[in-house]
Please model this.
Amino acid sequence: MATRSLPGRESPEFTEALEALRHVRLRPEVRITEVPAPQRIAPYAVALTADVLGSAGDDEELASGRFVLLHDPSAPEPWEGEWRAVTFARAELEPELAADPLLGEVGWSWLVDALAQRGVNATAEAGTVTRVVSQSFAGLADRPASVEMEVRASWTPIGPDAGAHLLAWSDLLCTIAGLPPLPEGVVALPGPRR
Model:
């Protein structure tokens, strides 16, 4: 996994976190790709994007998002620690959800539940849930209205397992994509790789 870090300076903690990320086994519907990490936020960073695709052989994108893990041994005050996970997850929803006054609270609860179900501890949580309603007019009037939801969140991981935080975020991504949760103790079988 290629990452961004200070030249000539190694961080054993960051190397351990990268190793944990490499060993995460995601649902077969989730396709993950490493992308360039942010340059000026922290001395060490890794960034991943993910798409949730439909069933095997179906290239329909159900959701997409980004997971960034930052490490700064100086422990910036707003982070309340040396680590920070910065994420977003986005998906198109059913048009009738546009008027739901609780959509924001539901989106945030999906994140909180995902973290809790993975048993990860975090502090300094922050985020927004945004809904965008698009309605077409004139030459595009035949297009149906669409609703998109985006959950932007950050938190400071507590504990050594960066992989569990990636798993929790991927659970959120699958939830907003509309995939049913896997029952306790069930592991998804890997699908065909591209």
The chain has one domain: 12-177. The longest strand covers residues 121-134. Residues 12-177 form one domain.
